[in-house]
Structure formats: structure tokens, C-alpha cells
Amino acid sequence: MTLGLSSGFIEPLESTSIHLVQSGISKLLALFPDKRFNPVERAEYNRQMHDVYEDIRDFIILRYKATRRSDSAFWDYCRTMDVPDSLATKLELWRTKGRLFRDGHELFGTESWVAVLLGQGIVP
What we know:
This protein is an all-alpha fold. It has helices at residues 5-8, 17-31, 39-65, 73-80, 85-97, 110-119. The radius of gyration is 17 Å and the shape is elongated. The model has no long low-confidence stretch (mean pLDDT 89).
């Protein structure tokens, strides 16, 4: 994984870069408090950061996928595009019984997900 402002810029509507830098530094200090870099610690750091990035990616894709706009080819594509399996699972859990599991993810909490889902007309 990378660490820095350029690695944390995902989308301009959601300010993710500062959070990703801080999260990366926090995980780096927790897993590598000294100069001994163990492969299992490196793998764990990468796994944790991968999960953070995927969760942010899913939240941002949701904002585009759930749009009701149809005034251009861009928005038509967004509404009909395939989404990552992780987001498809979240949407299915939400649609069937209003379930939303955050699994300890940091940036966009349950309230943010519910606001986007309900705000875009995706109801259980």
C-alpha cells in the first residue's frame, strides 16, 4: 500500500485523503513501532488498508449507482453499471431487511450509508 495525499485522493465530493493518510499512519505506527519489518505485519497492514480503501470505494460508487439522474449518457451508465461484489452484497442486505453491517470500518459510518440509501430512494 501507499501512503500520502496522492494515494488518498479518491473522489472530490468526499474528502477522503486526510482520513486515509491519518489511517495509514496510525496503522503503520501500530504495526511497525520499530525498524523490524516482519512479513506478517506488512501483510496485515496491507490487508487493513485494502479494506479501508474498498469501503470508501463502495460508498462513493453507491452515490453514483443510486442516482436518479438520466440527463446524460454518463448518468445512464452510472445507474446501470455493475458494482463490486462487496457493494452488491451491502445493497442486497439493505433491500431485503434494512440490514447494514459496518464491520469496524472507519470513515463513513452507518448514518452516512443510511442517509445516502434512503436519500436516493433505496428502501428496505
